[in-house]
Hints:
Blueprint (H helix, E strand, L loop, with lengths): L4 E6 L1 H4 L9 H16 L3 E6 L7 H6 L4 H25 L4 E5 L8 E2 L2 H9 L3 E5 L9 H12 L3 E6 L4 E2 L11 E2 L1 E3 H7 L6 H9 L4 E5 L5 H6 L6 E4 L1
Helix pairs in contact: 2-4, 6-8, 7-8
Amino acid sequence: MGYKRVLLKLSGEALMGEQGYGIDPEIVQSIAKDVAACVAEGIQLAIVVGGGNIFRGLKGSAAGMDRATADYVGMLATVMNAITLQDGLERSGVPTRVQSAISMQAVAEPYIRRRAIRHMEKGRVVIFAAGTGNPFFTTDTTAALRAAEIGADVVFKATKVDGVYDKDPNKHADAVRFESLSFLEVLSSELEVMDSTAIALCKDNAIPIVVFDLFGSGNIGRAVAGQPIGTRIHP
Length: 235
């Protein structure tokens, strides 16, 4: 395998598949199957999951909600996704722990960095929920932050597209996909990969980012193995 410890960022939108809302059980089981194969190879894996399939803080704010309140509602949505993903992973035989940045002891452990690392060393997958626990930060930033904290070798961002393009491939047939980009190129070109805070965190800590298509069967395993897939963003 190409990496020893990795952080996988899953968007909430990816979990809903072709549905307009909620969670598609088939997508969850597909992810669980791929993750199980990686764990069986000895990879230490952590996951950060978004909540956009249930609630997006920015949309709530745009509709008139207080931004901090909207972000907290979004954080709770990520906990729902994390628990659902935990169930899917454990039904696939993968021991899993959910750690929440917002205390809710009945359903998740509190986020404790050293405990998270120990879980991974014991072969458990750790799902980080509730973002950073603070409003005004995205789950992309959470992924970069947790990756730095646990000493991850790479951040994998699994999306609905197969990499980073110069423009939206869903709207422009002539969009060009990049195979490789530097952090500075992403920041200076304002490419919509992750928010600038997340990119800057990964840049400062020399953690590469790989953006790839979640829906290709076995793509998570190929990415973790270090095979050329999607777009690689590096120092």
